[in-house]
Amino acid sequence: MSAPILVLVGPPASGKTTVGTAVADALGVGFRDTDHDVELQTGSRIADLFVTEGEAHFRALEEQAVARALAEHDGVLALGGGAVMSAATRASLVSYGRTGGTVVWLDVDLPSAAKRAGLSRDRPLLALNPRAMLRQMLQTRAPLYGEVATVTVQTGGRVPDDVVAEVLAALPTSRTGR
Fold first, then answer.
1. Closest Cα partner for 50 from 80, 11, 26, 95?
2. CA 123 to CA 120: how far, in whole Å?
3. 165: burial class by Cβ within 10 Å (0-12, 13-18, 19+)?
């Protein structure tokens, strides 16, 4: 049984994939995204799953994907923006943090998130009124991200390299082998 070097959480458009990929590259480890895991498992895009199966079905698949990835993956792990909605996932992340794991909340302000998300059809919860949905999502999920995070890094208005450097600096040297 292994554990990730680092887990990234945060809302859509906070930079989890961009930052996670760069951090994994810098550490010479693999990058894994639980949204991608769900898509591979089902053969469907997440946006399509929301339409055909509903959000509850997707969230159940997501919870399983997170549990699997936390147990199997030893690199950098990024969770879907809504993964923290699951009490079981939050408990797993808190436990991981208590045993020395690093959970980084990539926090983003509304203007930056709205600019990054644009009108993407790949973000099903943002399809109707992206700015209003993002605002509500940021407000509702912030306490949940805060509950699981061991470190918070602001990403709004920052270039990825600066965020990556801050995330790398937050990692204990025992986890990175540096």
1. 80
2. 6
3. middle
Give the phi and the psi of residue 141 in degrees, each rounded to 5: -90, -20
> Could you give the C-alpha distances from 48 to 2, 3, 95, 173, in angstroms and in order?
32, 30, 32, 41
* Residues 156/111, Cβ–Cβ less than 8 Å: yes
Nearest to 144 by CA among 69, 77, 70, 91: 91
10 Å CB burial of residue 143 (0-12, 13-18, 19+) is: exposed
Task: Kindly tell me the sign of the dihedral angle through the C-alpha atoms of 98, 78, 149, 125.
Answer: negative
Mean pLDDT confidence for 57-74 = 95
pLDDT tens per residue, range 84-113 = 999 999 999 999 999 999 999 999 876 676
Residue 132 CB neighbour total at 10 angstroms: 11
For the segment 30-44, the average pLDDT, to the nearest whole number, is 96
Domains identified in the chain and CATH numbers: 6-173 (3.40.50.300)
35: buried, middle or exposed (CB in 10 Å: 19+, 13-18, 0-12)? Answer: buried
CA distance 21 to 97: 21
As a whole number of angstroms, the distance between CA 84 and CA 78 comes to 12
